[in-house]
Amino acid sequence: MITMTRRRWIVAAVALIALAGLASVVALFFIDEPLRRYTEAKMNARLQGYTATIGALHFSPISFSLDLRDTVIVQHAHPDPPVANIGRLYASVHWRALLAGRVVATSSSTARWWSDLPRRRRRSATLPGEGQGVAGGAAGDLSPQDQ
Protein backbone atom coordinates (compact mmCIF):
# COMPACT_ATOMS: atom_id res chain seq x y z
CA MET A 1 0.00 0.00 0.00
CA ILE A 2 2.90 2.31 0.65
CA THR A 3 4.22 1.76 -2.88
CA MET A 4 0.85 2.76 -4.39
CA THR A 5 0.79 6.04 -2.45
CA ARG A 6 4.39 6.76 -3.33
CA ARG A 7 3.66 6.04 -6.99
CA ARG A 8 0.73 8.48 -6.94
CA TRP A 9 2.94 11.20 -5.47
CA ILE A 10 5.56 10.63 -8.15
CA VAL A 11 2.97 10.71 -10.93
CA ALA A 12 1.41 13.86 -9.46
CA ALA A 13 4.82 15.56 -9.16
CA VAL A 14 5.79 14.67 -12.73
CA ALA A 15 2.41 15.89 -14.02
CA LEU A 16 2.79 19.13 -12.07
CA ILE A 17 6.29 19.72 -13.46
CA ALA A 18 5.09 18.99 -17.00
CA LEU A 19 2.14 21.35 -16.57
CA ALA A 20 4.41 24.10 -15.23
CA GLY A 21 6.77 23.60 -18.16
CA LEU A 22 3.93 23.78 -20.66
CA ALA A 23 2.55 26.92 -19.01
CA SER A 24 6.02 28.51 -19.16
CA VAL A 25 6.37 27.77 -22.87
CA VAL A 26 2.94 29.23 -23.59
CA ALA A 27 3.67 32.31 -21.46
CA LEU A 28 7.02 32.85 -23.21
CA PHE A 29 5.34 32.61 -26.58
CA PHE A 30 2.89 35.38 -25.67
CA ILE A 31 5.09 37.67 -23.54
CA ASP A 32 7.50 38.92 -26.21
CA GLU A 33 5.11 41.26 -28.05
CA PRO A 34 3.63 42.97 -24.94
CA LEU A 35 7.15 43.35 -23.55
CA ARG A 36 8.32 44.88 -26.86
CA ARG A 37 5.46 47.40 -26.81
CA TYR A 38 6.13 48.25 -23.15
CA THR A 39 9.88 48.71 -23.70
CA GLU A 40 9.33 50.83 -26.81
CA ALA A 41 6.80 53.03 -24.98
CA LYS A 42 9.17 53.53 -22.02
CA MET A 43 12.07 54.40 -24.34
CA ASN A 44 9.98 56.93 -26.26
CA ALA A 45 8.68 58.49 -23.03
CA ARG A 46 12.25 59.16 -21.89
CA LEU A 47 13.74 60.24 -25.22
CA GLN A 48 13.09 63.92 -25.91
CA GLY A 49 13.20 64.80 -29.61
CA TYR A 50 13.78 61.20 -30.71
CA THR A 51 11.65 58.16 -31.49
CA ALA A 52 12.79 54.57 -30.99
CA THR A 53 11.26 51.64 -32.85
CA ILE A 54 11.96 48.04 -31.84
CA GLY A 55 11.37 45.49 -34.59
CA ALA A 56 11.35 42.41 -32.35
CA LEU A 57 12.16 41.54 -28.74
CA HIS A 58 12.83 38.15 -27.19
CA PHE A 59 13.13 37.60 -23.44
CA SER A 60 14.56 34.39 -21.99
CA PRO A 61 13.80 33.94 -18.28
CA ILE A 62 16.15 30.97 -17.94
CA SER A 63 19.29 32.93 -18.81
CA PHE A 64 17.69 36.32 -18.04
CA SER A 65 18.67 37.54 -21.48
CA LEU A 66 17.09 40.14 -23.71
CA ASP A 67 17.47 40.19 -27.47
CA LEU A 68 16.39 43.29 -29.42
CA ARG A 69 16.19 43.13 -33.21
CA ASP A 70 15.98 45.93 -35.77
CA THR A 71 15.96 48.88 -33.36
CA VAL A 72 15.94 52.28 -35.06
CA ILE A 73 16.37 55.67 -33.34
CA VAL A 74 15.21 58.69 -35.33
CA GLN A 75 15.57 62.38 -34.50
CA HIS A 76 12.32 64.32 -34.94
CA ALA A 77 13.99 67.40 -36.44
CA HIS A 78 15.98 65.38 -39.02
CA PRO A 79 14.42 61.94 -39.54
CA ASP A 80 16.55 60.91 -42.51
CA PRO A 81 18.98 59.20 -41.97
CA PRO A 82 18.23 57.64 -38.56
CA VAL A 83 20.63 58.43 -35.71
CA ALA A 84 21.09 54.71 -35.00
CA ASN A 85 20.10 51.51 -36.73
CA ILE A 86 20.85 48.58 -34.42
CA GLY A 87 20.43 45.22 -36.14
CA ARG A 88 20.76 43.11 -32.98
CA LEU A 89 21.36 44.01 -29.35
CA TYR A 90 21.81 41.12 -26.91
CA ALA A 91 22.20 41.46 -23.14
CA SER A 92 22.34 38.72 -20.53
CA VAL A 93 23.22 38.04 -16.92
CA HIS A 94 26.50 36.28 -16.13
CA TRP A 95 25.32 34.05 -13.30
CA ARG A 96 28.74 32.68 -12.25
CA ALA A 97 30.20 36.17 -11.94
CA LEU A 98 27.11 37.43 -10.13
CA LEU A 99 27.18 34.55 -7.64
CA ALA A 100 30.91 35.10 -7.11
CA GLY A 101 30.24 38.74 -6.22
CA ARG A 102 31.67 40.28 -9.38
CA VAL A 103 29.77 42.84 -11.42
CA VAL A 104 29.78 42.07 -15.12
CA ALA A 105 27.92 43.96 -17.80
CA THR A 106 28.27 42.61 -21.31
CA SER A 107 26.23 43.08 -24.40
CA SER A 108 26.83 42.46 -28.04
CA SER A 109 25.32 44.29 -30.94
CA THR A 110 25.47 44.70 -34.64
CA ALA A 111 24.85 48.40 -35.03
CA ARG A 112 25.34 51.10 -37.57
CA TRP A 113 25.81 54.40 -35.77
CA TRP A 114 25.83 57.67 -37.61
CA SER A 115 28.05 60.42 -36.33
CA ASP A 116 25.90 62.94 -38.16
CA LEU A 117 24.24 64.15 -34.94
CA PRO A 118 26.83 66.86 -34.09
CA ARG A 119 26.58 68.27 -37.63
CA ARG A 120 22.80 68.30 -37.38
CA ARG A 121 22.96 70.23 -34.13
CA ARG A 122 25.32 72.78 -35.66
CA ARG A 123 23.03 73.27 -38.65
CA SER A 124 19.88 73.62 -36.59
CA ALA A 125 21.37 75.73 -33.80
CA THR A 126 20.60 79.43 -33.88
CA LEU A 127 21.87 82.25 -31.75
CA PRO A 128 19.28 84.25 -29.84
CA GLY A 129 17.86 86.96 -32.09
CA GLU A 130 19.30 85.48 -35.29
CA GLY A 131 17.53 83.36 -37.87
CA GLN A 132 20.62 81.76 -39.45
CA GLY A 133 22.65 78.79 -38.32
CA VAL A 134 25.83 79.03 -36.28
CA ALA A 135 28.88 79.42 -38.49
CA GLY A 136 31.55 77.94 -36.24
CA GLY A 137 29.56 75.08 -34.80
CA ALA A 138 31.55 74.77 -31.57
CA ALA A 139 29.69 73.45 -28.55
CA GLY A 140 29.90 76.86 -26.85
CA ASP A 141 28.15 78.49 -29.81
CA LEU A 142 24.91 76.55 -29.36
CA SER A 143 21.94 78.40 -27.99
CA PRO A 144 20.71 77.25 -24.54
CA GLN A 145 17.66 75.45 -25.99
CA ASP A 146 19.87 73.38 -28.35
CA GLN A 147 22.41 72.29 -25.75
Folded structure, characterized:
By secondary structure, the chain is α+β, with helices and mostly antiparallel strands. It has a domain at 32-123. Helix content is 39%, strand content 25%. The protein has three helices and four strands; from the N terminus they run αβββαβα. Strands 1-2-3-4 form a four-stranded antiparallel β-sheet. A hairpin with an 8-residue loop joins strand 2 (65-75) and strand 3 (84-91). The longest helix is centred in the first third of the chain and has 45 residues, at 2-46. It is elongated, with a radius of gyration of 25 Å. Residues 119-147 have low confidence and may be disordered.
Topology:
Blueprint lengths: L1 H45 L3 E11 L4 E11 L8 E8 L3 H5 L7 E7 L3 H8 L23
Antiparallel strand pairs: 1-2, 2-3, 3-4
Helical fraction: 25-40%
Q: Which radius of gyration do the C-alpha atoms yield? A: 25 Å
- The residue ranges in which pLDDT falls below 50 over 5 or more consecutive positions are 119-147
What share of residues are in beta strands? 25-35%
Briefly note the structural class of the backbone.
Answer: alpha+beta
Average of the residue pLDDT scores: 75
Pattern of helices and strands: HEEEHEH
Question: How many runs of DSSP E, i.e. beta strands?
Answer: 4
Number of helices, counting only DSSP H or I runs of 4 residues or more: 3
Distance from N terminus to C terminus (CA atoms, Å) equals 80 Å
For the sheet with most strands, the description reads: 4 strands, antiparallel
Order the strands across the largest sheet as they lie in space.
Answer: 1-2-3-4
Q: In one word, what is the shape?
A: elongated
